[in-house]
Amino acid sequence: MDPQAFVRLSIGSLGLRIPVAASKTARDRICASSSPVLCEIRLRGFPVQTATVPLISYPEATPELNSIATSFYLEETDVRALLAPGCFHSSHAYLEIAIFTWSQGFNCGVGSKKQQIGTFRLQVGAEWGEGKPVVLHNGWIGIGKSKQEVSKSRAELHLRVKLDPDPRYVFQFEDETTLNPQIVQLQGSIKQPIFSCKFSRDRRGSQRDPMSSYRSNSANGIDQEAERRERKGWKIMIHDLSGSAVAAAFMATPFVPSMGCDRVARSNPGAWLIVRPDACRLESWQPWGKLEAWRERGIKDSICCRFHLLSEGQEGGELLFSEIMISADKGGVFFIDTDKQTQSGTPVPSPQSSGDFASLSPIVGGFVMNCRVQGEGRSSKPLVQLAMRHVTCVEDAAIFMALAAAVDLSIEACRPFRSKGRTRSRHSF
User: Fold this and answer.
1) Are residues 54 and 156 in the same domain?
2) Residue 286, Cα to own-chain centre: how many angstroms?
3) Residue of 278, 17, 313 whose CA lies nearest to 142
4) Exposure of 300 by Cβ count < 10 A (0-12 exposed, 13-18 middle, 19+ buried)?
5) Cβ neighbours, 10 Å, residue 313
6) Do residues 268 and 394 both lie within one domain?
């Protein structure tokens, strides 16, 4: 398998210090503020990212070198776009980091004002496209926004900006997950078959539903008991080209409506068990991960997908690695990235202390995988990107294909159980 070239731009080791020579007003405004110092990190063509900047109290102190505030991932086309002059912007693209704090307003923040401390700018250069590790900046730099400020009195920002090659394998389901599609690897215009995907439903799931005591009026004559039965016993098998099963996803907890409502709720999520063949026992499976999913209500409903890696050697050990909201209408991207926080704001565990994915080499931090899926009523052919460093053989990629299939099917499994005039499902069962 040949990977596609990607570049990881990481920004970390952030810290802000205010020299003693700085004006008393500036020091009081920053140091005495009850709000954290924040930064907005901007790169043309990418969404603005926000991170907290710790205040450094002692002049000799230095922020942690290996801490990562955020990362951008660039394809070859992204790098070319940043290096090419545009019609409506300057001939040079920049990485820009704006540091600011908030002056407190009244009424729970209403009337508060963002006050900029300074800006760091780094021009995009030819080295961005060379595919080699390079540190673009490391250390302290003055960021006072006033050109008249004396150099020694300016606020100083510490940061480390680094480029690393981060090649990925890119896979595509050639049809909807329930239609038993082939999974191909994409390399430019070349499509190479790698796996096949088989969907099935265990008819034994038609046994008495433990939620059968709950009743509500059906809409348009829909048999709700039958609908409940459709959302249990689902199974996805991933086979290699020889026909051997190399990974699977089993619906471990049925997707049923919570008491008093017509949807799968956070209080009672459905769950998938992601498994791979047990190397020690023939025709046995070894648990690898668990994916939970439920529906969040709002102006636009979302499907929340929460993934735990099952820790080997620990009874019931689960490590939260991702919690992502996906639009129920438009779809979105589920991802695992150790540089990012979960949807609930919980940081993912330290990769160097939590072990590895699927008995592969230890994670060194950063991107692991992502999967793009479509929303309800849309034909979904999941597109999966997988970091090359987590794949030592073809079978290692299979477990992530099973996870991607489970994410895709969760969009369907979390649809409302009754809805007047509901759009036809994207999957036909």
Assistant:
1) yes
2) 25
3) 17
4) exposed
5) 6
6) yes
User: How far from each other are the two terminal CA atoms of the chain, in whole angstroms?
Assistant: 34
**Claim to verify: residue 252 and residue 355 sit in the same structural domain:** yes
Q: What is the pTM of this model?
A: 0.81
Per-residue pLDDT of 184-240, as tens digits, reads: 999 888 999 999 999 998 755 433 332 232 223 333 344 445 555 468 899 999 999
Distance CA 372, CA 382 (A): 6
- Tokens standing for 92? 């040079």
* Same domain flag for 255 and 310: yes
Cβ atoms 116, 100 nearer than 8 A: yes
Name the residue range of residue 341's domain: 169-207+229-413
Residues 259 and 288 grouped into a single domain: yes
pLDDT digits (tens, 9 = 90+) for 331-379: 999 999 987 755 545 555 544 333 345 343 334 568 999 999 999 988 9
Same domain, 324 and 250: yes
How many whole angstroms separate alpha carbon 254 and alpha carbon 209?
Answer: 10
Whether 152 and 254 map to the same domain: the answer is no
